[in-house]
Amino acid sequence: MHMNFSADELAFEQKVAAFVSENLPADIKDKVDRGIELTREEVRRWMEILGQKGWAATNWDKKDGGPGFTIAEKFLAEDAIFMNGAPKMVHFGTRMVGPVLLAFGTDAQKAKYVPKILTSEEVWCQGYSEPQAGSDLAQLQCSAELDGDEYVVNGTKIWTTSAHCADRMFALVRTSKEARKQEGITCLLIDLKAPGVEIRPIITLDGKHVFNQEFFDNVRVPVSDRIGEEGDGWKIAKFLLGHERSNATYVSMNKRNLRKLKEIMADQRADGERLADDPGFVRKLADLEQDMLATTTMAMRQLAAASADKPVGAEASIMKLRVMDAYKQCHELMMEAGAYYAQPFERGHIRGEANTEWVGPDYLYRMSPDYFESRAMSIAGGSHEIQKDILAKRALGL
Amino acid sequence: MDFELSEDQVLLQESVTRFVADNYSFEQRRKLVDTDQGYSDKQWSQFAELGWLGMPFAEDVGGYGGTPVETMVVLEEFGKGLVAEPYISTIVLGGGALVHGGTAAQQQELIPQVAEGNLKLALGFAERQSRYNLADVQTKAEKSGVDYVLSGMKSVVFGAPTANKFIVSARTGGAARDEGGISLFLVDADASGVSVRGYPTVDGMRAGEVTLDGVKVGADALMGAEGEGFGALETTIDYAIAATAAEAVGAMSALNDMTLEYIKTREQFGQPIGKFQVLQHRMVDMFIAHEEAKSMAMMAAMRIDDEDPNERRKAASATKVQIAKSARFVGQQAIQLHGGIGMTDEYAAGHYFKRLTMIDRSYGDGDYHLARFGAVS
Ligand SMILES: Cc1cc2nc3c(=O)[nH]c(=O)nc-3n(C[C@H](O)[C@H](O)[C@H](O)COP(=O)(O)OP(=O)(O)OC[C@H]3O[C@@H](n4cnc5c(N)ncnc54)[C@H](O)[C@@H]3O)c2cc1C
Ligand SMILES: Cc1cc2nc3c(=O)[nH]c(=O)nc-3n(C[C@H](O)[C@H](O)[C@H](O)COP(=O)(O)OP(=O)(O)OC[C@H]3O[C@@H](n4cnc5c(N)ncnc54)[C@H](O)[C@@H]3O)c2cc1C
Fold it and tell me: What are phi and psi of B280, to 5 degrees?
């Protein structure tokens, strides 16, 4: 048993790091560093750069067209990408749609969609939630009725992250009201440019445009864009739950945020000393850093287990809970570190549209918005309460 | 011992409640804080007519002789509606500094104008390097004949963009972070050398950076004895903590009401989510957090005018620690219990959360006051 990376693996990490520092456009890097919302074009530009390199899908095997990284390499690649300032990717294509297509798609569907997922030419979003179907996803009502060789979709999806940056939606829709709720759900791939699709932004409390609500008014979707059979939607959604690996991404995000927190602590002053020398604050930092070490080790254990082809199962929920808690705590400390300068807020700064100079230390204006945004981490993707229900049921048999 | 409001205080509470109900629906507030100024002149005049602006001041300087309990009553109701008028900056901070540090002549001249709604004040006490330490003052006041020349910058001055006069702490002597050698000065907003860079704050309020570039003021601008302003400043901030605690309590109560209503009506899995025990217990903890905070805000209102400065400090710091704990818990959990809708700008909960979070970033956060409480207890 050991937790070390080999010389080859570390050289690999250097290679990824070098690629990112050379190819991440300066304007995007700067915006990420300053916490400014990226435009659709910027989001896609970076995804395409990684896609061209063949690294958009760090989690994919060679036989499926991915880079075929080893477990250690997957872990190190994420780290190297984030530690060198890259933005979060809109990864629904590589983490959701792709794996589903590989498992359930027809050859024609794979040929049509997979290559463009790998190059990031097409960006996907996830259309699960509806106003009345959040934690209780099986309650979803957005309907699809068969008409010849097309489905006619009517209804709405909400909280859809990055729909405004996406081309297509991976959607769960209702094709039957007769059966058990779960059995009437079908998985459709919806072209967001199709007539009858409207995407409305929803502004979050940090002032950013992160998610959206979509309205479908007689949107026609060819039957050939249905994954699996009618009624397979729930089965597919459950398959994805077990495959959720994006939490590992947040291990690397946490590492980057921790570095930022330390930079802030080195610059902020308390009683003439650096905040980094303030015993109370140092204790909080240590507590967080210890937490992150624990979650990182857990993440590595899970990745290692997955390499032995064992399903991660309910334990994925442990990661989600603990990684997101650390993420939230880190943002809380960054905001606390700002003291009075956590207060000024001009929405234009966060959106990159400001025509005024920022008033405080440059690194601070994003800290409150980021803190507010971080609160979503225990809501999105299955809330903390739901994750704990999953663990109670599946891990503990309660 | 008596925890009941007097008849007059109940009447005051009813009138503030009515004002908030009529003028501070979520939509009304959103429109208001999105205007350039961020609050309403008309409402400010209304406050004057209703006697709220003169309330905490002595009758012989044109006030109504209210105690910190009256201030608590007003601010708790303000907190429920997230009232955006610069009441704390003008009345509690500016007015407080006049009361605790101003000369009789300054009080006679200025307080009536404040009470009538014709003078807005702002108190500049924080600086870029100061964090929450009120004694960390680098702004300088140098004697020049009978005058003083002020140079430096005051950070995140609440209510700065529309203040007519500033009260600022400046060093007339002593070393960095000495309590001695700090003096308070009155400075006209339009005096030569004063510039204000105003901005909104996260919670929809307004503040500004106030730069003093060789601002000349007369000896009559000095508040109290030279070099002895710290005590008045510290007292003023302790009073502001008591007042802000009440505002936080009001905000928490509104947020808890909203969340309780939501979990009773929002259905998932075929039942109101309030039927899930984990949410019931969470909501109970939020309810307790508010009750504890309310108890401490009442304690602060009753003890903040204690003649023993140590008792005052203890009351202020213990209260601020409680507010930090309760506001954080209530704010964060309110969002959690709302799910996606809680994360949106269109929904009120997030705005309460933001104000509560910024109250924790004002006058010292929970950690700062825990240390101070430990030091004075
Ligand atoms: C930033 C963000 C991004 C998102 N991105 C997407 C996306 O891209 N695509 C998509 O489809 N969805 C997305 N979502 C939606 C997300 O999946 C839902 O918000 C989440 O599932 C919760 O649903 P809800 O918001 O309806 O809250 P509700 O389900 O109404 O939950 C409200 C509260 O009740 C609790 N609760 C509910 N049921 C139970 C129970 N049985 N026991 C105990 N407590 C319970 C919840 O934990 C929560 O605290 C996103 C959400 C956010 C905040
Ligand atoms: C020091 C001590 C002194 C006591 N003195 C007295 C006495 O003087 N007279 C007397 O009559 N009894 C007395 N008791 C007994 C006491 O009232 C019971 O222990 C108590 O009511 C719990 O019952 P139980 O021990 O059967 O545990 P259980 O009821 O079996 O509870 C076990 C656990 O399950 C939890 N639980 C139970 N129901 C629920 C629920 N609906 N939701 C969530 N969690 C739940 C409990 O909180 C507990 O954690 C005493 C107990 C102690 C420890």
Answer: -60, -50
Q: Tens digits of per-residue pLDDT, A98-144?
A: 999 999 999 999 999 999 999 999 999 999 999 999 999 999 999 99
Structure tokens at B55: 């309330």
Please name the residues in contact with A384: beta carbons below 8 A apart, sequence gap of 6 or more.
A321, A324, A378, B336
Two tokens at B240?
């502001």
**Residue A118 resides in a domain:** no
**Residues B123, B167 contacting (CB under 8 angstroms):** yes
Q: In this structure, is residue B2 part of a structural domain?
A: no
Confidence at residue A346, expressed as pLDDT on a 0 to 100 scale: 87
Pick the more confident residue, A316 or A382.
A382
Question: What's the CATH code of the domain at A194?
Answer: 2.40.110.10
Query: Could you tell me the CATH number of the domain that includes residue A285?
Result: 1.20.140.10
Rounded average pLDDT per 10-residue block, chain B, 377 residues? 94 98 98 97 98 97 96 98 98 98 98 98 97 98 97 98 98 97 98 97 97 98 98 98 98 98 98 98 98 98 97 98 98 98 98 98 97 95
Q: What gap in Å lies between CA B2 and CA A356, rounded to an integer? A: 52
Task: Return d(Cα B128, Cα B210) in angstroms, integer.
Answer: 11
- The verdict on B90 and B137 lying in the same domain is no
Partner-chain contact B202 A342, CB within 8 Å: yes
Inter-axis angle of helices A71-83 and A247-267, nearest 10? 40
Q: Is residue B1 part of a domain?
A: no
Q: Check A269 against B200: CB less than 8 A apart.
A: no
Q: Are residues B133 and A205, on separate chains, in Cβ contact within 8 Å? A: no
- Residue A309's pLDDT band, with cuts at 50, 70 and 90, is low
* Contact criterion met (CB below 8 Å) for A151 and A123: no
Percent of chain A predicted with pLDDT > 70: 97
DSSP assignment string, B226-285: TTB-HHHHHHHHHHHHHHHHHHHHHHHHHHHHHHHHHHHH-EETTEEGGGSHHHHHHHHH
Q: Which residues of B touch A204 (CB under 8 A)?
A: 343-345
Catalytic residues of A: 244
Count of domains in chain B?
A: 3
pLDDT at A310 over 80: no
Is B375 in the A-facing interface, judged by CB distances under 8 Å? no
DSSP character for A175?
-
Q: Which residues does A73 contact at the CB level (< 8 Å), separation at least 6?
A: A9, A12
Of B185, B205, B228, the residue that ends a domain is B228
Chain B nearest-CA residue for A384 = B336
Residue B223 shares a structural domain with residue B235:
no
Q: Which of B119, B137, B156 finishes a domain? A: B119
Q: Which domain holds residue B333?
A: 231-376
Question: Which ligand gives the minimal distance to the CA of B278?
Answer: 1
Q: What is the DSSP letter of A56?
A: S
Using a CB–CB cutoff of 8 Å, tell me whether B265 touches chain A: no
User: Residue A78 is part of which domain span?
Assistant: 7-89
Q: What are phi and psi of A160, to 5 degrees?
A: -80, 105
* Cα(A223)–Cα(A246) distance, integer angstroms: 30
- Specify whether B207 is located in the same domain as B129: yes
Q: Shortest CB distance from A345 goes to which of B136, B197, B201?
A: B201
Neighbours of A87 (CB within 10 A): 18
